[in-house]
Amino acid sequence: MSDSAPRGSVVLVHGGFVDGSGWQGVYEALKGDGYTVAVVQNPTLSLDGDVAVTRQVIDAQPGPVTLVGHSYGGVVITEAGNHEKVTALAYIAAFAPDKGESVNSLIADPPPGAAVPPILPPNEGFLLLDRDKFADSFAGDLRPAQAEFMADSQLPWGVDAAGGAVSTPAWRTKPAWYLVATDDRMIPPPAQRAMAERIGAQTVEVAASHAVYVSQPATVANLIKQAATG
């Protein structure tokens, strides 16, 4: 591929409790290298709704699409990745469910000694993280002020989204890549490794928190570029 050739399209899907703005560093790194990049703003009310929104964004992209998901976004891309334009999947410290699985089922039996995410009890159908524990659990390698902002700007995560089950896992027919965040206190690293192995992903490990897509955007962009180029 020449330096002037188009690099293809990348669609970035955020997870629960946050919106798409955290992808800015990854977005800028990919755009700077010639990719067309779109950021999905999922309402995270239900899995079906988020898949529909993601498919609309994929529809609008030119050419083949590398579909990227962080955390709960991994569930979204597992279903939305069946779109005919999607040629590769990239999971960034993300859930990678099989048929019939959801976030709720995947976190039901955590590894011994794993950190427990500080999710508050549901409030009118929505979930939030305890803001005082947000930095330690989600964003341990960000500047304190940045982690505090993320805690105070949380997007309430719908209970229905967390319970949404995948019907057709795209990784069964599309190649997958996985970035394991080894200091993650939201999704235990052993669980990340197990999911990556199960889906046959090409895997890299990075010493980072769950917010690796914010703290190490160049590293995340490099994995995405590997997925995009096969």
Describe the structure.
This protein has helices at about 25-30, 45-60, 75-80, 105, 130-140, 145-150, 160, 190-200, 210-215, 215-230, and strands spanning about 10-15, 35-40, 65-70, 85-90, 125, 155-160, 175-180, 200-205. The protein is built from ten helices and eight strands. Helix 1 (about 25-30) links the parallel strand 1 and strand 2. The strands form two sheets. The protein has a six-stranded parallel sheet, sandwiched between helices. The protein has a two-stranded antiparallel ribbon with strand order 5-6. The longest helix has 13 residues, at about 45-60. It is α/β, with parallel strands linked by helices.
User: What share of residues is helical?
Assistant: 25-40%
DSSP E strands, number: 8
The geometry reads as: globular
H/E topology pattern: EHEHEHEHEHHEHEHEHH
What descriptive keywords fit this protein?
8 strands; 230 residues; single chain; six-stranded parallel β-sheet; 10 helices; globular; alpha/beta; 36% helix
Topology:
Layout: E1 9-13, H1 24-32, E2 36-40, H2 47-59, E3 65-70, H3 73-80, E4 86-92, H4 103-106, E5 126-127, H5 131-138, H6 144-152, E6 157-158, H7 159-162, E7 176-181, H8 189-198, E8 202-206, H9 212-215, H10 217-229
Parallel strand pairs: 1-2, 1-3, 3-4, 4-7, 7-8
Antiparallel strand pairs: 5-6
Helix pairs in contact: 1-10, 2-3, 5-6
Structure, briefly:
The protein has helices spanning 24-32, 47-59, 73-80, 103-106, 131-138, 144-152, 159-162, 189-198, 212-215, 217-229, and strands spanning 9-13, 36-40, 65-70, 86-92, 126-127, 157-158, 176-181, 202-206.
